[in-house]
């Protein structure tokens, strides 16, 4: 939970002071390079796989910027690094990134247990960190000046999910969640938000390694719930959904962001129908910015963009907007511009940050799996948040 995340951050800070790496010197050299206002502007993106749509979105944005003579008349250079599932594996890569004093910003880190301690290193080294995947509240709770989340946090997400559930007429809820930190914390936040508007009739945790959910589902089936709130890893959630439908549990499932994937849709098959999930991106949005993005993405990759692609594209374009506003890549100035400049609109919506680096007033959209295809719900932007 929060204690574990805070402990991890404390350990990281101890490592920063105990190791021989001089992050403050790196920061000083980064400032000197930025003050020259010459040469390439360098950003780093972390990829989870060679076919990452997130990286595709990043690459498309970099290509478009360089076609328009770069930033401040300077080329924008992208370095792609391999993401890691744990911090100890990721640490050498993170150190290599910050030791390059040309690097102005880092984008990525899908796992909270990597992103949280990495943010401490980026802070010490004065590298802007744009987090496109982590919605856990702890990421921006430490007073850091260089960390910015690209998603509304779990508190905002829980409020929007409950608002949609209320609008859809749900009254009695069941909450099922994996015991891993991110799922447990989200479930706790969801139950806290839901307690005034819903009756919690069933609550159960499970291990992501669980293969047989039938004993849990047999009890749930007797509880007269209107909806299941489910938070777990993608394959586990698809396995649970299949067994639920096999046992005659036909009520809708509202899933966490982990279910927003082709893996869930493919693995769950028809059992995934009536599953509702949040997504930060509406590919059906008709605004001109999104339409141009979709056309360019399809032309380059011969596929539709998804939420990861949109967040990758927005991360780079937002960074570019702030560099142009600052007329510099000097870290402190650039971070201040990100915090306090007017709202900026990307392909996935409006971005406005507060002093903690949290994104403000950016709703999630909601989609439902129907006939094994995701369909956007008409009530995609609940306002009670």
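Sequence proposed for the structure above (385 residues):
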């Amino acid at each position: 939970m929060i204690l574990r995340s805070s402990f991890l951050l404390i350990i990281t800070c101890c490592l920063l002071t105990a190791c021989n790496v001089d992050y403050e010197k790196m920061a000083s050299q980064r400032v000197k390079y930025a003050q020259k206002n010459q040469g390439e502007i360098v950003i780093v993106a972390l990829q989870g796989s060679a076919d990452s749509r997130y990286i595709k979105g990043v690459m498309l944005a970099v290509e478009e910027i360089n076609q328009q003579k770069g930033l401040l008349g300077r080329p924008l250079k992208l370095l792609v690094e391999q993401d890691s599932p744990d911090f100890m594996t990721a640490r050498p890569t993170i150190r290599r990134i910050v030791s390059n004093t040309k690097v102005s910003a880092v984008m990525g880190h899908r796992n909270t247990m990597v992103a949280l301690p990495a943010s401490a290193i980026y802070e010490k080294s004065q590298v802007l960190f744009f987090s496109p995947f982590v919605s856990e509240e702890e990421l921006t709770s430490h007073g850091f000046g260089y960390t910015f989340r690209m998603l509304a946090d779990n508190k905002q997400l829980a409020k929007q999910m409950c608002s949609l559930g209320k609008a859809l007429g749900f009254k009695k809820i069941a909450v099922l969640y994996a015991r891993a930190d991110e799922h447990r914390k989200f479930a706790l936040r969801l139950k806290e938000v839901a307690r005034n508007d819903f009756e919690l009739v069933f609550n159960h945790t499970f291990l992501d390694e669980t293969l047989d959910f039938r004993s849990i589902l047999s009890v749930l089936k007797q509880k007269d719930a209107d909806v299941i709130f489910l938070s777990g890893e993608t394959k586990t959630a698809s396995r649970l959904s299949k067994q639920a439908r096999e046992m005659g549990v036909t009520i809708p499932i509202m899933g966490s962001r982990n279910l927003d994937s082709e893996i869930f849709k493919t693995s769950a098959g028809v059992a995934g129908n009536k599953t509702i999930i949040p997504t930060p991106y509406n590919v059906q949005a008709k605004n001109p910015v999104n339409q141009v993005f979709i056309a360019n993405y399809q032309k380059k990759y011969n596929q539709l963009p998804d939420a990861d692609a949109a967040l990758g594209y927005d991360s780079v374009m937002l960074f570019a907007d702030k560099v142009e506003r600052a007329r510099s890549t000097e870290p402190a100035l650039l971070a201040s511009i990100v915090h306090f400049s007017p709202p900026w609109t990307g392909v996935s919506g409006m971005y406005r940050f507060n002093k903690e680096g949290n994104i403000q007033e950016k709703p999630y959209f909601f989609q439902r799996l129907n006939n094994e295809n995701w369909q956007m719900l008409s009530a995609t932007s609940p306002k009670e948040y």
